[in-house]
Amino acid sequence: MLTSFGRRLAALAALFAAYSPAPALAAGDLLVAPTRVVLDGPRGAEVVLNNIGEETATYRVSLELKRMTANGTLEDVNPEDATPAEQAMLDMLFYSPRRITLPPNQPQTIRLGVRPPAGLPDGEYRAHLLFRAVRDAVPAVQPVAAGSGVSIALTPIYGVTIPVIVRQGNLSATAAIANPRIESDGEEHALRFDLSKQGNRSVYGEVIVERPGVAEPLLVARGIALYAELDQRVVTLPLAPEQVEALRGPVRIRYLEDRDAGGASLAEVSSVLR
Question: I need a surface site. Which of 26, 34, 90, 191 has the fewest CB within 10 A?
Answer without folding.
Answer: 90
